[in-house]
Amino acid sequence: MGLLLVRKGQLRAFILSPEGREITLYRLFQGDLCLFSAACAMGQLHLNIALEAEKDTQFWLIPPERYQEVMEASAPLANFTNKLMAERFSQVTWLMEQVMWHSFDRRLAAFLLEESTLEDSTRLSITHEKIANHLGTAREVVTRMLRYFQGEGLVRLSRGTVEIADAAGLRRLSE
Question: Are 141 and 105 in contact (CB under 8 A)?
Fold first, then answer.
């Protein structure tokens, strides 16, 4: 496809399982470059990463061949590219560690806190399905855990929204 350079907005990079389940790998914000969207031009990487605009987004699409040409001629760009690939790989490795070694309640608490920070609000307009897509699980699992959180006074639930009632409690749970 090419390299995406986010001019403004917010994108979500995710993978999709054969069964249709999603899991968010990372997010891209203004000024971020998505190298994985052109990974095939960066060597022998073969990745199926999907991108979704979470907010109104504008981006530039750089043809992978052109980026490769410029990168070969520019040591600073090559260093930047290597650093960015290492950062993305680190994010994906961190995600694998979270999924493999941390309980779902801990991951959900951390996700809600991250969303609250991104939206600069304790009232999140997000569905259980959307949360499940981010965290790579079933909607029913999210619903059960959110109801548990509500019973513990950590969140308040209403249709299409999750309101954080006890951020400190979620923070303790996420650590």
Answer: no
Architecture (CATH level 2) of domain 104-174: Orthogonal Bundle (1.10)
- CB atoms closer than 10 angstroms to residue 164: 20
Average pLDDT estimate for 15-41: 81
- Helix 104-119, helix 139-151: angle, nearest 10: 80
The percent of residues in the chain predicted with pLDDT above 90, rounded, is: 51
Give the fold, CATH level 3, of 3-101.
Jelly Rolls (2.60.120)
Across the chain, mean pLDDT equals 88
pLDDT tens readout for residues 96-127: 877 777 789 999 999 999 999 999 999 999 99
As a three-state string, the secondary structure of 126-144 is: CCHHHHHHHHCCCHHHHHH
Q: Are 57 and 9 in contact (CB under 8 A)?
A: yes
**How big, in percent rounded to 5, are the helix, strand and coil portions of the chain?**
50, 25, 20
In the chain, DSSP finds a helix count (H) and a strand count (E) of 6, 7
Domain boundaries, the chain: 3-101, 104-174
pLDDT, greater one: 42 or 22? 22
